[in-house]
Design the sequence.
């Protein structure tokens, strides 16, 4: 959320060859990690980093690129988790198909929320509250419609059922989840990159910076905001399915709760939403702090890493408004973007 | 069930005053600065814990803790605005409310860290009731909470209407540039406004400590309710927030009679969405010190 100039943006709008080489090398190393280590904990941490990086990336497509802040992306996340899991448990449908159905449903929900809100001109805080209320409504529905959703007890995916890795989860093949999440993260980043570097992305940037001016020069503001929202909702719902299969049990609060929505936002804020790799960097740092403080502090003292989260967020917003990526980039226009005058 | 109905109305009305006070602080901050303060719920929580510890350690009556709670939260709000939020007042609005989310995380999880369990205070007059009609007896604790909350809200109203500082606050909310031109130090006004808004939350926390369990997640309940009330009353409309608080308080307590559990929140959130879409200026025509339609 800064000046709108990505670190990797060359005058031609394409990354340098060295960026491709570096990216390829990092990817190769990441692909090799599960072969080098059998340490289950390291793989889990890596999956966490990919997971929140992915969520941040997909949240950013709607909220960072268009400036329409959503505090209710948990609605899409939970919808994805519940749809695919219920299809699997009730109909035996493979989660790979269920995942897509969940994604489509979430995209439709996103379109619906966007269409109604934007039609009535809800912006800024108003829009954020509407999304938050919708997430909460879905959580309450999941809680009380217990004939279908099993209510507060949540859903359990038995080991014998089909799961995302198409294998039953044992210590040995747990790494398949590592590859799935890595693939999803790379795919999501490529989609985000494509959106950002095409006409679509420039329209989004224009309407973020000044919606009225963008509309004046002929950008179909309504349509582009909706499209960004639908893509973002779709991607978020896919992560919901992943979550369901990775943990194999979830309750309404785990997938629809307000903290879920916030957890997607933090990596973007910390890393920097204007940079392609910002959400990923943010996720790496937050996961590092979270797991680190868990390792150091005794079990009973949970809550400590969330205090750290809070401190980091406040400091980053005040001193590094473009996120930590700003530190690594040489080509950024420093300084804070001003809010448009009302 | 029907015989419980009048009692539910009275109880809801009384607690609604406290909801209203929380929302008045929130709406004041929003009206003047355009900042949706997510930390307001955790300020309520801090006020509750302050009253709790003063009661447990020193035996101070929770209604006397109103004064320390006011000043303590005033200081927290003053600090937060002067050293944190004032640095980013020129930034896009989401930076400010994400910053308050950060403050909320710090305060709330500090409480999780220090006091993970639920606590409760019982004052000596907890079970006393005051007969309002021959059949309805309202608890004294609720009446006291209502009187303090509404008193504070009305006091704030006159402060804004009658004093020079209040005038400066209103001027800033109506037109920032105009206020600067006539010599208002708007940075100071921001600090003052945020401090007063936070102090409202602190007072609300202290006066409801005998009524609600003292826990680290109580802020979540209050922040959601307060935002619904603020939207109901119109963002920036202080009198609307007070009346909205009483409406929500009554709706909640009557709703519990008919709808079990937390399902009544479904209705609350639906109302919230409808209001945000169709009447973002709030339900009421009266009491706006300022036009909140800038956002």
Sequence:
């Amino acid at each position: 959320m800064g000046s709108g100039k990505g670190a990797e943006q060359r005058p031609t709008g394409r990354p340098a060859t060295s960026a491709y080489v570096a990216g390829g090398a990092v990817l190769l190393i990441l692909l090799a990690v599960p072969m080098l280590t059998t340490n289950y904990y390291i793989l889990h941490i890596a999956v966490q980093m990919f997971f929140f990086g992915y969520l941040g990336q997909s949240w950013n497509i709607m909220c960072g690129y268009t400036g329409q802040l959503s505090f209710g992306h948990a609605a899409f996340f939970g919808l994805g988790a519940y749809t695919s899991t219920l299809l699997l448990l009730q109909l035996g449908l493979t989660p790979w198909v269920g995942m897509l159905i969940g994604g489509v449903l979430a995209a439709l929900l996103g379109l619906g929320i966007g269409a109604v809100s934007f039609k009535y001109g809800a912006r800024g805080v108003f829009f954020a509250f509407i999304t938050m209320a919708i997430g909460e409504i879905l959580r309450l529905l999941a809680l009380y419609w217990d004939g279908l959703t099993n209510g507060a007890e949540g859903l359990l995916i038995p080991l014998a059922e089909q799961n995302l890795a198409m294998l039953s989860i044992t210590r040995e093949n747990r790494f398949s989840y590592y590859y799935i999440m890595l693939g999803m993260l790379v795919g999501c980043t490529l989609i985000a990159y494509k959106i950002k570097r095409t006409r679509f992305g420039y329209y989004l940037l224009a309407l973020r910076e000044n919606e009225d001016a963008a509309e004046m020069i002929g950008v179909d503001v309504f349509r582009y905001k909706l499209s960004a929202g639908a893509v973002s909702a779709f991607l978020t719902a896919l992560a919901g399915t992943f979550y369901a299969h990775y943990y194999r049990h979830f309750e309404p609060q785990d997938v629809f709760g307000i903290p879920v929505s916030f957890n997607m936002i933090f990596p973007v804020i910390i890393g920097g939403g204007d940079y392609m790799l910002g959400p990923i960097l943010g996720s790496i740092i937050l996961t590092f702090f979270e797991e680190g403080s868990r390792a150091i502090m005794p079990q009973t003292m949970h809550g400590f890493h969330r205090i750290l989260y809070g401190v980091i967020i406040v400091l980053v917003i005040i001193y590094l408004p473009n996120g930590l990526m700003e530190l690594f980039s040489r080509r950024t226009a420093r300084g804070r973007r001003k809010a448009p005058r009302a | 069930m029907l015989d419980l109905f009048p009692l539910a109305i009275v109880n809801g009305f009384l607690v609604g005053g406290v909801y209203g006070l929380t929302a008045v602080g929130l709406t004041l901050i929003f009206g003047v600065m355009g900042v949706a303060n997510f930390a307001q719920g955790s300020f309520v929580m801090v006020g509750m814990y302050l009253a709790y510890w003063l009661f447990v350690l020193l035996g101070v009556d929770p209604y006397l803790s109103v004064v320390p709670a006011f000043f303590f939260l005033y200081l927290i709000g003053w600090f937060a605005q002067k050293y944190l939020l004032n640095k980013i007042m020129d930034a896009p609005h989401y930076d400010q409310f994400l910053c308050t989310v950060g403050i909320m995380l710090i305060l709330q999880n500090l409480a999780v860290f220090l006091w993970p369990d639920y606590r409760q205070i019982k004052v000596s007059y907890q079970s006393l009731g005051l007969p309002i009609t021959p059949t309805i007896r309202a608890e004294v604790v609720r009446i006291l909470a209502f009187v303090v909350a509404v008193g504070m809200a009305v006091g704030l109203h006159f402060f804004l209407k009658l004093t020079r500082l209040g005038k400066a606050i209103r001027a800033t909310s109506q037109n920032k540039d105009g206020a600067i031109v006539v010599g208002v130090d708007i940075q100071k006004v921001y600090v003052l406004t945020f401090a007063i808004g936070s102090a409202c939350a602190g007072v609300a926390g202290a006066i409801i400590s005998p009524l609600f369990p003292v826990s680290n997640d109580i802020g979540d309940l209050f922040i959601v309710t307060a935002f619904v009330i603020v939207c109901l009353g119109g963002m920036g409309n202080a009198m609307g927030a007070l009346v909205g608080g009483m409406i929500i308080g009554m709706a909640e307590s009557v709703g519990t009679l008919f709808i079990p559990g937390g399902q009544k929140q479904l209705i609350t959130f639906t109302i919230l969405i409808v209001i945000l879409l169709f009447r973002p200026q709030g339900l009421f025509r009266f009491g706006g010190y300022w036009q909140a339609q800038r956002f």
Remarks:
- The first strand of chain B starts at residue 129 and ends at 131.
